[in-house]
Design goal:
The complex is a heterodimer of chains A (198) and B (94). Chain A has 198 residues and is mainly alpha-helical. Helix content of chain A is 83%, strand content 0%. With 94 residues, chain B is mainly α. In chain B, α1 packs antiparallel against α2. The radius of gyration of chain B is 18 Å and the shape is flat. Chain B starts with 10 loop residues before the first helix and ends with a helix. At the A-B interface, α1, α3 and α7 of A face α1, α2 and α3 of B.
């Protein structure tokens, strides 16, 4: 008897994992909401210190990379292996670009003495300390997810290259894509909450 | 194999979704410069939720999934809503 993968089952398993991720970030957003309620003024001032241009740029980069991942699944299912590989490479590049922007953004903040446990934050108003604390925890955890997502995309790339992932058998690519979209989902909320607070 | 057959999204649909997402990003940045007092946060969250719905329905093809994934996803969102609203009640009326 020929072994047959349970495609739906594989996806349900991935979704179950994604639910735990949603709750993980949900918990952090609850913290944000509560402290935003307590310190609206400091949060608004903190938000103005963040670089909106880099934030907007990174939002567009992640949205485009989500599109290319989704398109690479369409491509592999239509047996266009080369197109699928190219789209995956673009997605990986977008992830890299996102991290480079993040590096410059964080580096700029560090240079101004704003980093976790910095004397300027500890001795300043508590609301400001909490805003930047949450900023580093949430964007840091998100950045970690970007790195994991890029690793999954790179593995998918190799598997397609080796013909282990094909138009008939693409569950790994699909689940990596779901993970990548989750990273995008989280950023869609992070962007207005941190960069555009009012 | 029939039950495993899945809907293939066309490039055109995906590109339209991406265009909608980029337009909404522009909108949320634009709206942030207009001061509407207390309304600003709900509007920003409403736009973010719309964007998230697009990503979920099309990029993550939730629209074409079976009942198991759809219902379990909604349960997660309900749980998240309960977690956020109950915490907020506690904080707001303490």
């Amino acid at each position: 008897m020929k072994h047959q993968d349970d495609q739906t089952g594989i996806r349900i398993g991935m979704w179950l994992f994604l639910y735990t991720e949603i709750i993980l970030f949900g918990g952090l957003f609850v913290l944000y909401a509560v402290y935003f309620h307590d310190y609206p003024k400091e949060f608004a001032e903190g938000g103005k210190e963040l670089n909106r241009i880099i934030g907007s740029l990174n939002t567009c980069i992640l949205l485009i990379s989500s599109f290319t991942v989704a398109a690479s699944i369409t491509a592999i299912r239509q047996e266009c292996k080369r197109l699928s590989l190219a789209l995956l490479a673009i997605s990986f590049g977008c992830g890299l670009l996102f991290l480079i922007n993040k590096y410059f953004e964080w580096g700029h903040k560090f240079a101004h003495g704003i980093y976790p446990n910095a004397p300027e934050l500890i001795n300043g108003p508590p609301g400001r300390n909490i805003f930047f604390g949450l900023y580093y925890v949430i964007t840091g955890l998100h950045g970690l997810h970007v790195i994991i997502g890029m690793t999954l995309l790179a593995i998918s790339f190799v598997l397609i290259w080796q013909n282990s992932v094909t138009g008939q058998r693409y569950a790994f690519l699909e689940n990596s894509g779901l993970y990548w979209h989750l990273v995008d989902l989280i950023w869609i909320f992070v962007f207005p909450l941190f960069y555009l607070v009012l | 194999m029939k039950e495993n057959e899945q809907h293939i999204l066309s490039y055109k649909t995906l590109a339209l979704v991406l265009a909608a997402l980029l337009v909404l990003t522009g909108l949320t940045i634009g709206v942030s410069y207009v001061h509407m007092g207390i309304l600003n946060v709900p509007i920003a969250l409403a736009i973010a939720s719309t964007k998230v719905s697009f990503v979920l329905l099309y990029f993550m093809h939730l629209k074409f999934e079976g009942r198991a994934i759809k219902i379990s996803f909604l349960c997660t969102i309900c749980f998240l809503a309960i977690m956020i609203s109950f915490t907020f009640w506690d904080v707001a009326y303490r």
